[in-house]
Amino acid sequence: xxxxxxxxxxxRRCIALTALLAAVASAQTxxxxxxxxxxxxxxHTIGGGALAGPDLKNVSQRQKREWLVGFIVDPxxxxxxxxxxxxxxxxxxxxxxxxxxxxxxxxxxxxLLDMIEEESKLAKSEFVGLQLIVRPVLPQDIADGAxxxxxxxxxxxxxxxxxxxxxxxxxxxxxxxxxxxxxTRVFERYKDFRTLGQWLSxxxxxxxxxxxxxxxxxxxxIFALAAFFEDAARHRxxxxxxxxxxxxxxxxxxxxxxxxxxxxLWKNRFRAVRAPLAQAPLIGDES
Length: 287
Hints:
Order of helices and strands: HHHHHHHHHHHHH
Shape: elongated
CATH class of the domain at 139-235: Mainly Alpha
Distance between the termini: 89 Å
CATH architecture of the domain at 139-235: Orthogonal Bundle
Mean pLDDT: 82
CATH topology of the domain at 139-235: Cytochrome Bc1 Complex, Chain D, domain 2
């Protein structure tokens, strides 16, 4: 049974802990505008036309709010159920499913819809989409994109070079990274410069979002990379080099060479005491 003094102290500590946990949870939940930038803007605009996904201007007038909330929370559930409207969205997106947003809740989805409705009333939403460079592609653009991809030319805001996680056919004997997918045909999946460029401006995947959250690509870099990917889709084959196996064999070979070198350098080193003594003849033994 707590004493009269310890009980209020315990209550105060519990209240403080509860407030701290609530503050942490609140900080981890983004507001609707930040939510849209991080998770929606790569595939959707509000009044800027369709990208990989549909334009969301006045989306609440095209479908019931309850359905929209449910689709935002779990798009696969609607698609797998055979919902006609969801399947039409899938066809319009050329078979690309909307990815489920981590830790999405009905409250977050409702807040997103409220924000979209507000932006839909404006003459021009802040989410109208990235204004990309529009001009013919030059050979130098493709060369710049390849240099950015390989890391030969650093990204202006310090982002990681694409080669760290991805590959494109014909790069080199060792190819590129294997953490992310092969990007040789990525331009075909995103249809055009605008759609791919919008995705590059705000990549929604967990790894890409973390890597480029504070290192967004500049418009010139997006244009150059899109030009490189378009050229790769036309003229290159997907990278089929066994890069991981080559790296493993090179590592094992290098380790073997180093061990042999160390053995040569230290062949006269002190090796043992007990074994030579045990093998030596005892004093007084007959020959």
